[in-house]
Specification:
The complex is a heterodimer of chains A (about 350) and B (about 450).
Chain A lengths: L1 H42 L2 E2 L7 E2 L3 H7 L2 H4 L11 H9 L1 H16 L6 H13 L2 H11 L6 H26 L27 H14 L2 H11 L3 H9 L4 H12 L1 H17 L2 H6 L13 H11 L3 H29 L4
Antiparallel strand pairs in A: 1-2
Chain B lengths: L1 H22 L8 E8 L2 H17 L3 E8 L1 H9 L6 E5 L3 H6 L7 H6 L10 H5 L2 E2 L2 E2 L1 E8 L1 E5 H10 L14 H11 L12 E4 L7 H7 L17 H15 L19 H6 L3 E6 L4 H4 L7 E4 L10 E10 L6 H12 L1 H9 L4 E2 L2 H9 L11 H5 L3 E2 L9 H15 L5 H23 L3
Parallel strand pairs in B: 1-2, 1-3, 8-9, 11-13
Antiparallel strand pairs in B: 3-11, 4-5, 6-11, 6-12, 7-9, 7-10
Helix pairs in contact in B: 2-14, 9-10, 14-15, 17-18
The chains are: A mainly alpha (about 350), B alpha/beta (about 450).
């Protein structure tokens, strides 16, 4: 009896110590995360300009959001007009590419070669470099006049122009008509105007995003996953006559599928929330003509530029619902595609 | 478990005690602390600290705490009930804050103070800060738009064309004179078929295009602020005129033109690198040019339009929070901020032009040998300046989309007539909504 009581007391003390250890974090989470999240849900049902008390409007913000042309419009509705959902989705189209590139890089960096640690460090560098610094760097790279990208394109221009003329002539013989060289330029443009052009701004940001994400945390996760694949599986497959592609497709891909699933889910969440910094720093507030305004930046615009806190909160909650639904779908689908153990 | 509960209670109590402690305005040395909010820009911060030191020396019962940031920070402070006592603001948001009782009307302070008169300011700088007849801020600094021109490019042209010389821009210039000069000054220096120097740089932003609409007898919105008038023949003709300078004459870079060899494509840099002969801008640009150019430049009034010589005024003011607990002391600080000494310091710091007339007169005539020679033009054109009476914070997204329509002209994606019609449609939609939801401006 006495022994039992001692154990109970000890357990209680241990539990208390545990609670005390997590207390600062739990309090921080409750006060600075949970409360604001709940408050934002209430706010989404109100009209609030920060200066006067919130006014209850029920679901009006959500109704307005569903009818918000700026949010939902797509370029084929009106030329040059890119809605913010469209912008976000287009930029997220780079996610699968980014995942594949990360896996490709990790596979290469998983080879046992001398100096490999140096290469791993080099590829991880973009992730530990300050975001603003890399964004400024990319702004210069993408500068229409002095950027190194257009300088390279300029050298390739003559050759491409000659080839394009040939293609144009062939098209002409068959009754087709192609636009004058270059097919991508603005009205006066020889090279893409990148961040200055409605149609090129998103690809510019995607390019930068791929550069930053392929060698970042995703690559490290894949590296860890690849190193956990038992070599015996590859040896057995080799003995059975499996080629490199078969070994990758039948062993590596299924074995790293939990990592792929994790990266995919996180990328989807990050993709829906992202684009704020780029819009703020690189495209002068989501320009040109709103073509790089993502949902995240639209929330900021509504909250702090136009003082529509309630509407901003409703966008944030719509975003949450979208992410939740997609995550649930992914979770359900993962049972078929993700292999544990 | 009890310990955890007690810990939680203790933490909450500490939090409450701390929040009360931060609310104290009375300091331990008996001085009252006032908060001054200004934009965060290092040269301003330094100047602000200097002028606060002068104020505190002359007002030993007051301590001034400088808070710097942007509008987000200000709004957060207001909603957190720790609004700064005095805040800088752009004149276009005065109505927004006044309507929500976030700021105090200053008429009673002015009436009670026999030593203070609004006559010390340029009238327009005061009028822009009124809302429904009451004054809600005292003018801080501002500037109308005038013309910067590169005298050396004019001189060079006149040397090469002695039979048809150009006069320097001046008050007598008309739209035709401007267009002719812009065309004449546009040059392809190396004969490679690309323009190296543009006569002018045309901007379709909200800070510029209304000037030409007004000068042509048009308006952006009606006097009762209920109708957008940008689809009027006058407005369309003004936009067409700007468009033609850009696309017919080729005298101005378009939104897509890359001026070869220029280090950046912003209008100020193009002017500084002698790639543009004439630039319409405010005195705020001085911080970009003074001491940073190696050629002679000067200032002139904008060319006179077919109907009038209007220009646009961009400026702000100091407003007082309705949360302040020391209105008398705040008034003292406010008077100091707009007074001669403080205004001089602000103007020297690069904050455009003092709204205080005496200081503006003095500081625009008293710097021989330093360009521009005709700095006094800023004072002269104040008489023609008009405020941005069409910009309302509440119309944010409609405003953005309407503005984009104007930018499409410079991108060659819309004709001026199309852009003006689209602008009117979008802006009117926003305006109708504004009246319906908020009762208008």
């Amino acid at each position: 009896m006495k022994k039992g009581k001692t154990i109970t007391t000890w357990r209680r003390r241990a539990a208390l110590a545990g609670y005390l250890f997590i207390l600062p974090n739990a309090l921080g989470f409750l006060i600075f995360t949970s409360l604001p999240v709940l408050a934002s849900l209430l706010l989404s049902l109100c009209k609030w300009d920060l200066l006067t008390p919130p006014k209850w409007v029920g679901l009006e913000n959500f109704r307005n959001l569903l009818a918000d042309v700026d949010f939902w419009k797509v370029p084929w509705m009106a030329p040059y007009e890119h809605g913010f959902m469209f912008n976000t989705l287009v930029m997220m189209m780079a996610i699968p590419v980014s995942i594949l590139l990360s896996l490709f890089l990790a596979t290469i960096l998983n080879q046992k070669l001398r100096g490999m640690v140096l290469f791993r460090t080099l590829f991880f560098l973009p992730s530990i470099t300050a975001g603003i610094g890399t964004m400024l760097l990319w702004m210069w790279l993408l500068h229409p006049d002095f950027g190194i990208i257009n300088a390279v394109l300029g050298n390739a221009y003559e050759g491409l122009s000659w080839m394009y003329d040939g293609v144009r002539n062939v098209a002409y013989w068959f009754g087709g008509e192609l636009s004058a060289w270059p097919p991508w330029g603005g009205p006066n443009g020889m090279h893409p105007k990148w961040l200055n052009d409605v149609n090129w701004a998103k690809p510019s940001l995607i390019m930068m995003g791929l550069w930053g994400s392929m060698g970042g945390m995703n690559m490290i996760l894949y590296l860890a996953a690849l190193q956990n694949v038992p070599p015996a599986l590859y040896e057995a497959a080799k003995i059975d006559g499996a080629g490199a592609w078969q070994r990758f497709w039948k062993i590596t891909w299924p074995m790293v599928s939990p990592t792929t699933f994790f990266i995919f889910i996180m990328s989807i969440i990050g993709g829906f929330q992202g684009g704020f910094q780029q819009a703020h720093i690189m495209t002068d507030g989501g320009g040109p003509a709103g073509s790089t305004t993502t949902i995240g930046f639209y929330i900021y615009q509504n909250a702090y530029m136009w003082f529509r806190m309630g509407y901003a909160a409703s966008i944030a909650w719509l975003l949450f619902l979208i992410v939740l639904v997609l995550t649930l779908i992914n979770w359900h689908a993962s049972k078929r595609f993700v292999h544990y153990g | 478990m009890k310990v955890v509960v007690w810990l939680l209670i203790a933490l909450v109590l500490v939090g409450i005690a701390y929040s009360f402690s931060t609310c104290r305005a009375e300091q331990s040395d008996g001085r009252v602390e006032l908060t001054l909010f200004d934009w965060n820009w290092p040269p301003y911060n330094k100047m602000n600290r200097e002028r606060i030191a002068i104020f505190e020396r002359d007002n030993p019962d007051i301590r001034v705490r400088l808070v710097t940031g942007n509008e987000d920070k200000y709004l957060t402070m207001v909603s957190g009930n720790v609004a700064p006592d005095i805040t800088i603001t752009d004149h276009t948001v005065i109505g927004y804050f006044a309507k929500r009782n976030a700021i105090l009307p200053l008429d009673d302070f002015i009436a009670a103070d026999k030593d203070f008169s609004l006559d010390m300011f340029f009238p327009i700088t005061v009028e822009t800060l009124r809302y429904r007849g009451r004054l809600y801020a005292l003018p801080s600094s501002g500037s109308p738009v005038a013309m910067f021109y590169n005298k050396e490019l004019f001189d060079e042209y006149n040397r090469n064309h002695p039979k048809e010389p150009l006069t320097y821009p001046g008050g007598e210039w008309t739209w035709d004179d401007f267009r002719h000069a812009a065309k004449a000054l546009t040059q392809d220096r190396d004969g490679d078929g690309k323009t190296d120097v543009y006569g002018a740089i045309i901007s379709f932003t909200f800070h510029r295009f209304p000037i030409y609409v007004w000068q042509n007898g048009g308006e952006i919105i009606s006097k009762d602020q209920k109708r957008c008038l940008m689809d009027s023949p006058e407005a369309i003709a003004a936009m067409q005129w700007l468009h033609d300078i850009m696309f017919v004459d080729g005298s101005s870079p378009t939104a897509y033109t890359q001026v070869e060899g220029a280090s950046q494509q912003t209008s100020g840099i193009l002017f500084k690198e002698q790639r543009v002969a004439m630039l319409m801008s405010t005195r705020y640009s001085y911080s970009e040019f003074i001491g940073k150019t190696n050629f002679e430049w000067d200032i002139a009034p904008l060319p006179r339009g077919p109907v009038n010589r209007a220009t646009i005024y961009i400026g702000g003011g100091w407003m007082v929070s309705s949360q302040t607990r020391h209105p008398e002391k705040v008034w003292r600080l406010l008077k100091f901020l707009v007074g001669n000494k403080s205004s001089q310091m602000s103007m020297v710091c690069g904050r455009a032009m003092a709204t205080n007339r005496e200081v503006a007169e003095l500081m625009t005539t008293n710097h021989p040998g330093v360009p521009p020679a005709n700095d006094h033009v800023w004072v002269e054109v104040m008489a023609d300046a008009r405020p941005k009476d069409f910009e309302f914070k509440e119309m944010g997204r409609y405003f953005r989309n309407a503005r984009a329509e104007m930018n499409y002209i410079s991108q060659g994606r819309r004709t001026p007539a199309e852009a003006c019609r689209n602008f009117t449609r979008i802006y009117q939609k926003g305006l109708d909504r504004f009246w319906k939801d908020e009762g208008g401006p």
